[in-house]
Amino acid sequence: MKDEVDVVIVGGGAAGIAAGRWLTDAGRSVLIIEALPRLGGRAHTVLLGGYPVDLGCGWLHSAERNPLSALANSLGVAVDRSKAAWGDQLGAINFPKQAQQEAWQAYEAFTDRLAKTPPASDRASDALTEWQPFINGLSSFINGVETDRLSARDFTAYEDAASDNNWRLPDGYGAFIAALGRDVPMMLDTPVSAIRAGVVETGRGAIQSRAVIVTVSAEVLAHGAIRFPSAAADHLHAATQLPLGLADKLFLSLADPEAVPAESHLLGRFDDEGTGSYYLRPFGRPMIECFLGGAHARALEQGAAVDFAIGELRALLGADFAKGLRPLLATRWAKEPTILGSYSHALPGHAGARATLARPINDWLCLAGEACSPHDFSTAHGAWQSGIVAARHVHQAMPQ
Hints:
The protein is of the alpha/beta class. The chain contains 13 helices and 16 strands. Among the domains are: about 160 residues, FAD/NAD(P)-binding domain (3-Layer(bba) Sandwich), CATH 3.50.50; about 70 residues, no CATH class.
């Protein structure tokens, strides 16, 4: 490693990797410093039962305009473009077809009110009129938080930009992201403690650099894990207004995969926001991908997630089916100290915090990450694009 690099990038997730690749292509010397012993951040693929599964992001959202879709295609990475089963309840179990139609119509009416007649409070929950448990449950999966803590303006900014085209990577989204960074110089398992002009302090000593891009989560910024120059005060305050919601996953193996059809879905309860969403046999694999969100997921991180999910599936599919379920792995993103959650949401009244966070602190220091994206926040491609924006800024501001 050189005594000094042009740019130190703090954080090796999608934003950091994108910045590192762009700057390397521009002829700059870079170093990614990552606190975890791996690249990818909230994009993380592991093998379970011999199958690659994503513990964090797993969908190429707004795929037709997603730069990572195009990159995967150019690199020959397999992409599954089939329609997801999210909107359908297998066999209408505990959720009659008529009720499903009414619930989804209520959700569409809710999002329409947020866009056209947003509440003066900017609190999304103030636009709820019916099917409140169902809509709050959806919000916990989509936003990682219930509607009472969600900015209507922020939510609408995402919805207005998003499409219904959501694709998957059978070999793992996290594996794809990590592989994109393998040729960028890096130091793993190295937490950063402080940043000042020309120097980044780490657990392995000081590293000199001409510029710094920080891509850690908004929650980590807000918790003060890294000391910044006083010029970053407004940005750190903005981070407190963009907390990370929580979307955890639990994977269960199936003793009898043929008991349920591949690529099907069940919502645990439609009349209780504290429920799970169950994707049955993704890619035809003998497992269930269980989704838990919001305050309910935080409570279950204490250790009750497995019992809860199996209990809901027992109620839906019967005791014999539940006997064949075995836990494989459960995520606890809120308990990962280098991340502290899943993805950001703006608190009511604070949608403008994203613009503050994304604004360069000065010529040599700026932030990146999904929370900096104006309308693609909560996604890997939003983080990716923000990393490129930050890279361009420090490159243009830095003398050749």
